[in-house]
Automatic annotation (TrEMBL):
PANTHER family: ENDONUCLEASE/EXONUCLEASE/PHOSPHATASE FAMILY DOMAIN-CONTAINING PROTEIN 1, ENDONUCLEASE_EXONUCLEASE_PHOSPHATASE FAMILY DOMAIN-CONTAINING PROTEIN 1. Pfam families: HHH_3. The chain crosses the membrane at residues 16-35. This is Helix-hairpin-helix domain-containing protein. It comes from the Bacteria. The keyword Lipid metabolism does not apply. Keywords: Membrane, Transmembrane, Transmembrane helix. It comes from Flavivirga jejuensis.
Amino acid sequence: MQNFKSHFMFSREQRNGIFLLIILIVGLQCVYFFVDVSSENISINKEELARFNKEIDSLRLVQLEKNEVKIYPFNPNYITDFKGASLGMSNKEIDRLLAFRKQNHWINSIKQFQEITKISDSLLNQISPYFKFPEWVTHPKTKQKPVFSYNNKSKTFAEKRDLNKATAQDLQKVNGIGVVYAERIIRFRNKFVGGFIDVIQLQDVYGLSLEVIERITNNFTVKTPRQIKKININKATVDNLVNVQHIDYDLAYNIIEQRELREGYKSLDELKKVKDFPLNKIDIIKLYLSVD
């Protein structure tokens, strides 16, 4: 207890120091609360301030122009939720358009777009200049029934025309061959110096059905086949085989592996037993191979 009291016993000098510290603290608090030390004579250059604010406004305008959404020509049939919102369409207007498209219907005019979406005239005037409908909608052509010169009856070899010399116009006379398919056949033929080896290669032309190929072969055949040196399947290396259409490295290894197991191929039809062999392409592959 005696030690505890000793902490509160001060000498005269200590008491005087404590008293002066208290007075100093109280004085500073009074100065803080009652003395206004703020300056009332701050001068403002109004012209400089106005010039500064003008520069800030110009910078803001530049930034707004950069952030402004630019609209490019588009087909209104493919407006998405995000695209519609960016154009200013409401959710209901966008939903009406999407519901119309879900029925597999197409919008083919500006007037029809407004009838479906029910957007306001002002918004329509803003966005309609950017509408871009397909060419066949804006410039429809009168459809004419095609006239085919060739029938589906097969001709003799002498009567048939040379497929390697046929033009796109010649091919378009076949029922089922239009401009696109005719040009595709010519382009495929020109990939090879000398053209087709056999009409069976038409199977490699993308999009041609077996029925259309049959109509072509009823009127065309390869009379001037491309000259190639066939590869002996029993002596061919992997590098030889991968030069053949539809044979990649994996298939080439499988062909050689099967050849070793059979101690050589007796006929090209035995390739059907090779693992992963493309059976639907065997007639084309056989054009490049021999067993001699």
